[in-house]
């Protein structure tokens, strides 16, 4: 086998960063050559995440100490906060114009920089790079991703809604003004930074909606659904926080267009994803649990009949840290590097 590609993980001390390291360690085509973490700079990865004690990994360093031109990295994963990422990636491309980057933040997901400013509260800091960014939902944009240099990894909530809905929108099979997405996420979706509202005693034995009517992922959903439909689409979306570590479950309510039945909607999804390695459509009437995909890069989709005539209930589940973040990022890397798409990310879900 040829020499391994050198990759870097920026923001390795967060949940998505550590998940990248976990998965990259068993990837046969890569060598982890750089790990950054601002507050943990100078530490070993095992000091931040003891599960990595048996493995030889680079010492964590601060971003400002990295010489991008001399780094020799073939691909860089950015698992940094939004806004920060735009400045960092701009600096990387200035020093290493041929770099390949998969960005796990929200900084390059919105093609419209005005929309980004509206939803994130500040102007886009690298609009010239936004023009070349490709939205990294592999099953929908595979052809463009293969040629990309900068990939905007999708959000976890959005992946769990776009995968079941985009094929139906493309097929003109559902009414576009009657889509409701009721989504629930585990705690890791909120990141690893200490927050009072995320303390165990604040979230255990409870369940709540948040970002009601104004969650930032709405802009991402609007963009991708409108792109699929060829006209503006605005859906109802409400996220909820569940006291569990991993997983997203989206319960989606749709109405069939021109008499399309729930069974026909199921058939459309079944055909669309028949050859996809990481999307599995269950038999009609069966619905997934988050535990069915835990630790895997899979998305499970179920379709059931609503008691309201003409309406269907679609339920999708994925692991927010894997298919919703780090696993999908590696799937994007595999495409960009010309490797088999499933390389290093084909593990079966953990159960129980």
Structure description:
This protein is α/β, with parallel strands linked by helices and 352 residues long. It has helices at 15-24, 45-48, 84-95, 113-120, 127-130, 138-146, 156-170, 200-203, 217-229, 262-272, 322-337; strands spanning 5-10, 30-36, 75-78, 101-103, 134-135, 150-152, 180-185, 208-209, 236-241, 248-255, 279-281, 299-305, 311-318. Strand 5, helix 6 and strand 6 (150-152) form a beta-alpha-beta unit. Helix 1 (15-24) crosses helix 11 (322-337), helix 6 runs parallel beside helix 11 (322-337) and helix 7 (156-170) runs parallel beside helix 9 (217-229). It is globular.
Short summary of the structure?
The chain is of the alpha/beta class and 352 residues long. The protein has 2 domains: 5-132, NAD(P)-binding Rossmann-like Domain (Rossmann fold); 157-320, Dihydrodipicolinate Reductase, domain 2 (2-Layer Sandwich), CATH 3.30.360.
Helix-strand makeup class: alpha/beta
Helix/strand order: EHEHEHEHHEHEHEHEHEEHEEEH
Work out the count of structural domains. Answer: 2
CATH C-level class of the largest domain is Alpha Beta
CATH superfamily of the largest domain: Dihydrodipicolinate Reductase, domain 2
Runs with pLDDT <50, length 5+? none
Rg over CA atoms, rounded to whole Å, is: 20 Å
Strand content: 15-25%
CATH topology of the largest domain, what is it called? Answer: Dihydrodipicolinate Reductase, domain 2
Helix content: 25-40%
Number of beta strands = 13
**Overall morphology:** globular
- The chain-level mean pLDDT equals 94
Biggest sheet, spatial arrangement of strands: 8-9-7-10-13-12-11
Overall CATH architecture of the largest domain: 2-Layer Sandwich
Distance N terminus to C terminus? 36 Å
* Main sheet characteristics: 7 strands, mixed
């Amino acid at each position: 086998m040829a020499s391994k590609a050198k990759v870097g993980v920026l923001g390795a001390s967060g949940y998505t960063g550590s998940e990248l390291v976990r998965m990259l360690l068993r990837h046969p085509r890569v060598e982890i050559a750089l790990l950054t973490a601002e507050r943990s700079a100078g530490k070993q990865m095992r000091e931040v995440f003891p599960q990595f004690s048996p493995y030889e990994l680079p010492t964590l360093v601060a971003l400002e100490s990295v010489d991008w031109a001399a780094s020799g990295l073939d691909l860089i994963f950015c698992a940094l906060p939004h806004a920060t990422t735009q400045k960092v990636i701009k600096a990387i491309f200035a020093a290493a114009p041929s770099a390949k980057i998969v960005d796990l933040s929200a900084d390059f997901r919105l093609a419209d920089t005005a929309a980004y400013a509206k939803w994130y509260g500040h102007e886009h800091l690298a609009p010239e790079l936004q023009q070349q960014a490709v939205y990294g939902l592999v099953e929908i944009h595979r052809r463009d991703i293969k040629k990309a240099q900068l990939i905007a990894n999708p959000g976890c909530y959005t992946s769990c809604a776009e995968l079941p809905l985009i094929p139906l929108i493309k097929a003109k099979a559902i009414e576009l003004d009657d889509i409701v997405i009721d989504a629930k996420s585990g705690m890791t979706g909120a990141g690893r930074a200490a927050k009072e509202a995320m303390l165990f005693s604040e979230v255990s034995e409870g369940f709540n909606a948040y970002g009601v009517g104004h969650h930032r992922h709405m802009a991402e959903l609007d963009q991708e659904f409108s792109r699929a439909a060829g006209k503006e689409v605005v859906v109802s979306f409400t996220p909820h926080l569940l006291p569990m570590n991993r997983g997203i479950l989206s319960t989606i309510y749709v109405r069939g267009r021109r008499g399309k039945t729930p069974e026909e909607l199921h058939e459309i999804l079944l055909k669309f994803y028949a050859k996809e390695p990481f999307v599995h459509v269950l038999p009609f009437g069966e619905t997934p649990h988050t535990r069915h995909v835990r630790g895997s890069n899979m998305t499970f989709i179920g379709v059931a009949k609503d008691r309201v005539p003409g309406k269907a209930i679609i339920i999708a589940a994925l692991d927010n840290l894997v298919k919703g973040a780090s696993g999908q990022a590696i799937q994007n890397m595999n495409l960009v590097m010309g490797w088999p798409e499933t390389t290093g990310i084909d593990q079966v879900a953990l159960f129980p």
